[in-house]
Amino acid sequence: MDIALVEEFEFDWVLSGKSKLTAQKYAYDLKRFLLKHPTPNLNDAKQWVIETPSQVGRRKRGQALRAFDSWLSSQGILEMGWSQQIPLAKEKTLPQTTATQSDYVNAIARASTLRDKAVIEVLWSTGVRRSELCALEIGDVDFLGGFIVVRVSKTGKPRVVPMSPAAKRALRRIVYSRKSGSVFNMTPNAVRLLLRRLEAPSAHAWRRGWTVSALRNGVSETSVRAAAGWSSGAMVARYTRALSGELAIDEFQRSWGG
User: Fold this and answer.
1) 150 membership: H or E segment, kind and range
2) Which of 74, 158, 166, 201 is in the most buried spot, having the most CB atoms within 10 Å?
3) Total structural domains in the chain?
C-alpha cells in the first residue's frame, strides 16, 4: 500500500475540522505499520496492535487502523476492509483530580505575586490548557469584551473564551501599559512548577474543575464545549462522569428554586 495515502488521510482529517494532534499520531503509527507490512492483512494488523504492552497504545493503534480504513472506503479505495474486526482494548476510566472552589481559594491565598494570582484566576475562570495559557499574547486579551482569544489550540482551531471579572482585573494588573508581547512569559514547565509550589492541582485538573463549575452554575453544555474547544460532548462527559450525580442534584434544585 502506498504510504502517501497516509499523508492524504492526515490532511483530510485536519481539513474536516478534527484534531491535528490526533491526525499526526495516527499518521505516525500507520506509517510504521505499513513500512513493516506493505500489503497488510487482518493477522498482520492484530499482531501489530498487540505488540505494544500498553492497553492505551493498543487501543490507539486499533483506532488508527479503523479511521484509516474508513477514509479509504470514503475515497473508493478498498485496500483493507477488515479493520472493524480488530477488537479495541477497553479504556479504563481512572480517578482524576478535579480542582474545586477550595483549591482556588487556597491557591490565591498562597500566591505571592500578581503574576501567580493571575495564572490561577485564568486557569479557574477559562479552563485553558497549560500550553494555551503560556501562548497567550497581550493582543489576545479583550478587556472590553471580557474574553481571551486562544489562537493555537490542540485542535488547531482558534476559539474565544470568556473570562471572569476577577481574571480580567488580575490580567490588567500584570499587563500594565504594555501593548504587545507574552502575557505571562512562562513555559509550560514553569507553570507546572508554580502550581506545585502553591500546592495546587495540575493545570488539567483546573480545566476539569472549570468544566464542572460552569455546568454546576447553569452554563449550557453547548457553551462549555465552545469555550473548551470540544467538537462533541464526549470530553464533557468524561470530565464530569464522577460528579454527574452532584450536577444532577444542583440542576434539579435550581429548577425547583432551591
Assistant:
1) strand 147-150
2) 201
3) 2
